[in-house]
Design a protein that fits this description.
This protein has 18 helices and two strands. It is mostly helical and 384 residues long. α9 packs antiparallel against α10 and α14 runs antiparallel to α15.
Length: 384
């Protein structure tokens, strides 16, 4: 039949599908033949300008993919490096001659690189640039082969951007479609990741009870050890939701059971998050000495990492401990520090106003611990 060809399995490929198949095979050959040279270039062991053009053509796509892999590995340690490597991958992807792999496979390559670059911008809090880049990725994906895994990945990253923009309903709806796509592909691990992200965004939208079920299901789907960062993030948010839902004792048990995961990763900001959550839980369980120690530890970790905004938010939880024991002088100093920090970070006017009102309440001659604690909680909810 015109436009079709018989495959080894007895099925038929249309002309477009045949071209895409041939393009993927050509790309796979370049990956295999160019892997060692791409690694040498990435490690600065072989200058690009010394590579002959015929050999360089084979190298461009696999080198772009290796830059992308290194970019992903820098997410938690070096966001600026994550962007740098993803931008290098984009430059390379747009140097690939479309005739080498065919127009549609080349479009897939560009879409994949743009999607991960958009995510790198998102991680670095450049949400406008992230949105533009992810829109470009979606446009290139539509020009590609229709690869369902690529489309799911672009959708997954777009959902994360919606959540960062506080559009939680859109993010959760998009992740439903993403999860369904991964399930149809038989990729339980990626479906579990989508469930975990749904849990994160459901928690952030103020529904911890609903999020608990999503985290539990998502964790069951993950391949053990395949993505320790994702697994630890899910465990942490699971414990946080248990605490928020009034199950602080169970949250503490979960953190004790999984503490080895934090220590194995030894990532400074994750350890700061752990100390902060442990302090919250300890305060709820009326273990006030442990609460103060953990919260002060979290604050110092954030300050060391130059995360002054997070350190100030921890200070609000620490303020609850000080208010409970009517340590007024320390409380006034702490709130003054928060006012200075948030002014420097240029948060919205209503946030500064709430902190100034809190400071005046702390300075009153008659110390009313219960009323002051309620004001601290309200201020924390606004600033979060």
């Amino acid at each position: 039949m015109t436009g079709e060809r018989q495959t080894a399995s007895g099925g038929r490929l249309r002309r477009g599908e045949l071209a895409a198949f041939a393009g993927r095979m050509a790309l796979e050959r370049d990956r295999e033949s160019g892997a060692a040279l791409a690694a040498a270039v990435l490690a600065d062991e072989r200058p690009v300008e010394t590579i002959p053009w015929p050999e360089l053509q084979e190298l461009i796509a696999p080198l772009a993919e290796q830059f992308l892999q290194r970019s992903s590995s820098l997410r938690y340690s070096d966001p600026a490096g994550m962007i740098r490597d993803a931008e290098a991958a984009r430059k390379l992807a747009f140097l690939v001659p479309p005739r080498r792999y065919g127009r549609r496979v080349t479009a897939d390559l560009r879409a994949r690189v743009l999607a991960e670059l958009g995510n790198a911008y998102r991680v670095a809090d450049d949400l406008d640039k992230a949105g533009d880049t992810l829109a470009d990725a979606a446009a290139w994906a539509r020009r590609g082969t229709g690869d369902p895994r690529l489309l799911a990945r672009v959708g997954e990253l777009a959902a994360s951007l919606h959540a960062d923009n506080r559009h939680f309903d859109q993010a959760i709806t998009m992740l439903e479609q993403v999860r369904s796509s991964y399930e149809q592909l038989g990729d339980d691990h990626s479906a579990g990741r989508a469930l975990i992200k749904q849990g994160m965004f459901t928690r952030e939208s103020g529904k911890p009870l609903e999020a608990i079920a999503l985290f539990a299901c998502g964790l069951k789907c993950l391949d053990p050890g395949r993505d320790s960062n994702l697994e630890l993030t899910a465990v942490h948010d699971f414990a946080y939701c248990l605490h928020e839902a009034g199950c602080s004792a169970q949250a503490r048990e979960l953190l004790i059971e999984k503490r080895y995961m934090y220590e194995r990763l030894a990532e400074p900001l994750m350890m700061a998050r752990l100390s902060w959550l442990e302090g919250k839980i300890a305060f709820e369980l009326e273990d006030d000495v442990e609460a103060e120690v953990s919260l002060r530890g979290a604050k110092q970790r954030y300050l060391k990492a130059r995360k002054d905004g997070d350190a100030a938010l921890v200070s609000l939880d620490l303020a609850l401990v000080l208010a409970k024991y009517e340590r007024q002088r320390e409380l006034v100093v702490l709130v003054n520090e928060m006012v200075d920090t948030f002014r420097r970070l240029q948060i919205r006017r209503e946030g500064i106003a709430a902190l100034v009102i809190l400071r005046k309440a702390c300075e009153r001659p008659v110390f009313e611990a219960e009323a002051l604690s309620a004001r601290i909680r309200a201020t924390a909810a606004l600033l979060q």
